Amino acid sequence: MLSAIGIAVIVHGWVTDDARSAAPFGLRERDAVAPFHGYREVRIALADKPNGTCARFVVADTEARREDGLRGAHDLGPYAGMLFAQPRDSRVVFTMAGVNDPLEIAWYASDGTRIRATHMAPCPNGGEDCPLYRSPRAYRTAIEVPGGRSLPQQIAPC
């Protein structure tokens, strides 16, 4: 009986460990709106924009949402892009398999400073031919925005 309870606790830990990763860097979360109902959103200060412009980002805060990313999202609604919240430092790579439109990506360290940014080319047919995009070192958060748009140098709340 005790072993069954122990197994249930371990399985519960596996299932809930990444249930929802918290938004990093003191970003305040609120419920997202269409077309991302059920998600959360955060606002990020874009220091490189005049007058301290704020931008809204939808948060990919579970493993399934991070795997889906912006795949199939042709209309971002009021969002500038997607923030990928990892539960801890990560080396997970990104792919554009099944994505029809180009994206920009940046990876950020645990203090919110940008590690690297790159352009990701569409790979709509998927498969093994799609390149993998990776940070040169472990990162805590990544942000994707539509191709040609700029990414912040630092993640900070606004």
Secondary structure layout plus pairing:
Elements: H1 2-17, E1 30-31, E2 40-45, E3 54-60, H2 63-68, E4 81-90, E5 94-95, E6 103-108, E7 114-120, E8 132-133, E9 139-146
Parallel strand pairs: 3-4
Antiparallel strand pairs: 1-2, 2-3, 4-9, 5-8, 6-7, 6-9
Question: Describe it for me?
Answer:
- This protein has 158 residues and is of the alpha+beta class.
- It has one domain (20-146): Sandwich (Jelly Rolls), CATH 2.60.120.
- Helices cover 14% and strands 32% of the residues.
- It has two helices and nine strands, in the order αβββαββββββ.
- The strands form two sheets. The chain has a seven-stranded mixed β-sheet with strand order 1-2-3-4-9-6-7. Strands 5-8 form a two-stranded antiparallel sheet.
- It is globular, with a radius of gyration of 17 Å.
- Residues 1-18 have low confidence and may be disordered.
Number of helices: 2
Percent range for β-strand residues: 25-35%
Structural class: alpha+beta
Number of strands: 9
Between the first and last Cα atoms, what is the distance in angstroms?
51 Å
General shape: globular
Residue share in helices? Answer: 10-25%
Helices and strands, in order, run as HEEEHEEEEEE
Adjacency order of strands in the biggest sheet: 1-2-3-4-9-6-7
Mean pLDDT: 84
The major pleated sheet works out as:
7 strands, mixed
Quick recap:
The chain is of the alpha+beta class and 158 residues long. Helices cover 14% and strands 32% of the residues.
Keywords:
14% helix, 158 residues, disordered N terminus, Jelly Rolls, 2 helices, two-stranded antiparallel sheet, alpha+beta, 7-stranded mixed β-sheet, globular
